[in-house]
Design a protein that fits this description.
The structure is a single chain. By secondary structure, the protein is of the alpha+beta class. The protein is 28% helix and 17% strand. A 3-stranded mixed sheet has the order 1-2-3. The chain is globular, with a radius of gyration of 19 Å.
């Protein structure tokens, strides 16, 4: 790229959307299960809707993992990572996947000739917040108004019993 090249883009191209999930929580154990997911994402012009749908599903599950399972823990004395392999570092599996209802909105972007917008970030970016909000909503009767992520069963149980 030339040093005098114009890299200013006057119109940012951002995707937008709304994701909502439903959770079930066992108050005895603190285990959270995501049981349903609905999403609407504005992707501009959907060049390949099936691929975008798959990206949403994959992104949501990545975000669910961040919200409920994935945690880097270290030994406080040695600094050694405690979850150094996939045997002891939890991530979502296929049987953790809830039913999905996804919808693509196509409002073309005026800032590029194809009218496209980012489509794959929606699931990953919003899933942790959607899960956390669903957990807090479900635990409102216990006086819970905040949950730290990842919302492990221990953290959820402590929130219920505090």
């Amino acid at each position: 790229m030339r040093e005098d090249a114009d890299t200013h883009y006057p119109k940012a191209v951002l995707g937008s959307g709304c994701h909502v999930c439903e959770v079930e929580i066992d108050p005895e154990t603190g285990v959270v299960e995501v049981v349903d997911w609905s999403a609407v994402d504005d992707v501009g012009r959907a060049v390949n809707p099936m691929t975008l749908d798959g990206q949403t599903h994959g992104g949501v599950m990545q975000g669910v993992g961040q919200a409920l399972m994935e945690n880097c823990a270290y030994d406080t004395e040695t600094g050694q990572m405690l979850g150094a392999t996939f045997l002891d570092y939890a991530m979502p599996r296929a049987d953790d996947t809830p039913p999905f209802r996804t919808k693509l909105l196509e409002v073309p972007s005026p800032s590029n000739p194809l009218g496209i917008k980012p489509g794959s970030e929606g699931g990953t970016a919003v899933a942790p917040a959607a899960v956390a909000n669903a957990i807090v909503d479900a635990l409102r009767e216990y006086g819970v108004d905040h949950i730290e992520l990842p919302a492990t069963p221990e953290r959820v149980w402590r929130a219920i019993n505090s």
